[in-house]
Amino acid sequence: MHIGEVAARTELSLRSLRHWDEVGLLRPSGRTDGGFRLYTEADVEKVLVIRRMKPLGFTLDEMGAAMRDLETIRDPAAQGHVSAQARQRLAALVTEATTRRQKLVSQLGMADEFIAQLGHQLS
Questions:
Q1: Residues facing 37 on adjacent strands
Q2: Contact (Cβ atoms closer than 8 angstroms) between residue 63 and residue 93
Q3: How far apart are CA 111 and CA 113, in angstroms?
Q4: What are residue 38's phi and psi, to 5 degrees?
Q5: What share of the chain is helix, strand, coil (3-state, %, to 5)?
Q6: pLDDT tens sequence across 33-77
Q7: What is the spatial distance between Cα 16 and Cα 63, in angstroms, rounded to a whole number?
Q8: Distance between CA 87 and CA 93 in Å, rounded?
């Protein structure tokens, strides 16, 4: 599928997808003869993983490392110790993502309190 369809399906901008390609975070699986990016369903799944990491504040480098580790653990040819190291890093990433999520929940609670206070003052 073309980049526009991927953008619509993932609710991301064309600019984000192009940027991720340019920095090597997510390269499309192919290109047309005219040079247009072509994505597969597997590419869309990768886009969705990255999109889910964005609100947690992970950097492009952190997202890239996570994507490489995910590829490693899915690769049946990956050697045991390499796969084990990737799993270890991903487990640490789960812990970090959980911590970041808890912080976001706390911030949302404060935002709700603020909105309620303003609403009360305006009533």
A1: 31
A2: no
A3: 5
A4: -125, 130
A5: 75, 5, 20
A6: 999 999 999 999 999 999 999 999 999 999 999 999 999 999 888
A7: 14
A8: 10
What is the spatial distance between Cα 112 and Cα 114, in angstroms, rounded to a whole number?
5
> Does residue 31 register a pLDDT over 90?
yes
Give per-residue pLDDT as tens, 16-30: 999 999 999 999 999
Backbone angles phi, psi at 41, to 5 degrees: -60, -40
Class of domain 1-56: mainly alpha
3 state DSSP class of 4: helix
What does DSSP assign to residue 2? Answer: B
Q: What pTM did the predictor assign?
A: 0.84
**Domain coordinates of the chain in residue numbers?**
1-56, 59-123
